[in-house]
Every structure is written in structure tokens, then in C-alpha cells.
Amino acid sequence: MAAAADHDVPMISMRAVNKHFGDLHVLKDIDLEVRRGEVIVVLGPSGSGKSTLCRTINRLEPIDSGTITIDGQELPAEGRQLAELRSDVGMVFQSFNLFAHKTILDNVALAPTKVRKTPKERARTEAMALLERVGVANQADKYPAQLSGGQQQRVAIARSLAMNPKVMLFDEPTSALDPEMINEVLAVMSALADGGMTMLVITHEMGFARRAADRVVFMSDGAIVEDAPPEEFFSRPKTDRAKDFLGKILNH
Ligand SMILES: Nc1ncnc2c1ncn2[C@@H]1O[C@H](COP(=O)(O)OP(=O)(O)OP(=O)(O)O)[C@@H](O)[C@H]1O
Ligand SMILES: [Mg+2]
């Protein structure tokens, strides 16, 4: 498709996106463009709509109005096409959600064999290479419960990558981890970013935001109120809401 090959087409485009949960207006006229290879860190107080924003991008949450495109293609409402487009968008959550009764290798090889019909042997070879990449290849035959939280989260990242996504979304991927495991997960994410992956990351890790983000998007009450490079956002936030947020998070 012409649009897909055009490098000027944003990887993610949200235009005038609105969403309500009942009476609650959770996404208010969201306009957001993420270019190919860009890393966006989304910040904002609890309840500001960060997770909802993330979930609308692959239609885990339907929107009320507006448009969302991935690599130039609008998300279909349902059906096979949605499944295909959704697999272009990898997502990693706070909880790892690995299949408990499957080995680490099988966790990573499963979706490519089931969804993409990749032959089993090839899927396993590719899964092994991904486990290598996230540094847990030596755990391939274990079950999730036998791994540390940090290792499990790296497997979850490998599992998403196995579908060859165009975009990776992360919703607080390190929030459930013990402090000593946070860095190993952030290191995998930084390597992905350096490798050119387009990423949207919700995180409270300000060091990661400063180092890895091309832009920081700050949300408050369902709206994007700031969108700036990290050095600008952290040193010269424009709104009182961002100043207040940074005051709390940086002095804490
Ligand atoms: N399924 C749902 N049904 C009803 N309300 C919801 C639902 N999911 C989220 N909300 C509400 O929508 C608002 C935005 O929630 P969201 O989870 O997107 O915030 P967040 O910025 O990710 O917060 P946190 O930092 O706590 O994760 C909140 O007021 C929340 O209570
Ligand atoms: Mg959230």
C-alpha cells in the first residue's frame, strides 16, 4: 500500500479523539502525531487518561469520535482486519500476563504460530533470538513463575516483538517491579528505542523519560496540555498543572 511505504506518514496519528466512560469525559479532543522511530513518554497524574489513551491506539477501548491511524491506516472497528492491525501494535502492561502453564520459549513462539501461521520450528528459532535479545535465553525452558519479575517483563517484551510490531506501547511496564529489576527492563526498552522502534511509554521513571524520550506528552484531566522535548518539559514546564506534577514527583 502506498501509504504504508511513505515515510512522511506518521506512525500513529490521533485527531480530535474523544472518549467518555458514562458521564466522564476521559479523552478530550486528543491530537497526537508520533513519527516513525519516535519515542514518546506520556506523563500525568493518576486518572488523567494515560492508560485509556494507550488502549484506544489498538482499539482495546473504542472511541466516541475522531480518527486514529497506524502507519496511515485507520483502525477498522472489528473483524480480521482489526486483528491484523492490532498485531502491528505491541503492548506491554504493568502485569506480565504470561501463560503460566507454558514455557518461556512457548510463550514467545505461541502467537506467531497461531496468528501468523509461522511454522513451529521457525517460530521457536525466532523466539530464541528474541529471548537472547532481551537477555533471558538461558531461561527458555522454565515456566514464568520460576523467573523474577524483571525477567518475566523482558519475556513479555520479547513476546510482543515476536509479532513484528510497527509500534510498541508500554503502560507502566516497571511499576510492579522491585527497584533492582527496573533498570534491566528499562535497558531493554532503551535498546529498542535506539534500534528505531516507534514507542509510546507511560512511566514514572523520569530518568528514562529524560534519556530516551524524543517528546514528553503531559496529560491532565483527559487532555494533552503539554507536548515538548524532555529537556524543555523538565526545565521549563509551561502549565501550572505540569509544574505541580513535577514538583510532587521529583521531590518524592
Ligand atoms: N473501564 C472504565 N470504566 C469507567 N471508568 C474508567 C474505566 N477505565 C478508566 N476509567 C476512568 O477514566 C479515567 C482515566 O483513567 P486512566 O486509567 O486512563 O488514567 P491513568 O492516567 O492511566 O491513571 P493511573 O496513573 O492511575 O494509571 C479515570 O477517572 C478512571 O477512573
Ligand atoms: Mg494508567
From TrEMBL:
It catalyses: a polar amino acid(out) + ATP + H2O = a polar amino acid(in) + ADP + phosphate + H(+). InterPro entries: AAA+_ATPase, ABC_ATPase_HisP-typ, ABC_transporter-like_ATP-bd, ABC_transporter-like_CS, MetN_ABC_transporter-like, P-loop_NTPase. It is a peripheral membrane protein. It is found in: Cell membrane. Residues 12-246 form the ABC transporter domain. GO terms for cellular component: plasma membrane. It holds the Pfam family ABC_tran. It comes from the Bacteria. Its EC number is 7.4.2.1. It is an enzyme of class 7 (translocase). Keywords: Amino-acid transport, ATP-binding, Cell membrane, Membrane, Nucleotide-binding, Transport. Its main location: membrane. GO terms for molecular function: ATP binding; ATP hydrolysis activity; ATPase-coupled polar amino acid-transporter activity. The keyword NADP does not apply. The keyword Membrane applies. Belongs to the ABC transporter superfamily. This is ABC-type polar-amino-acid transporter. It comes from Mycolicibacterium chitae.
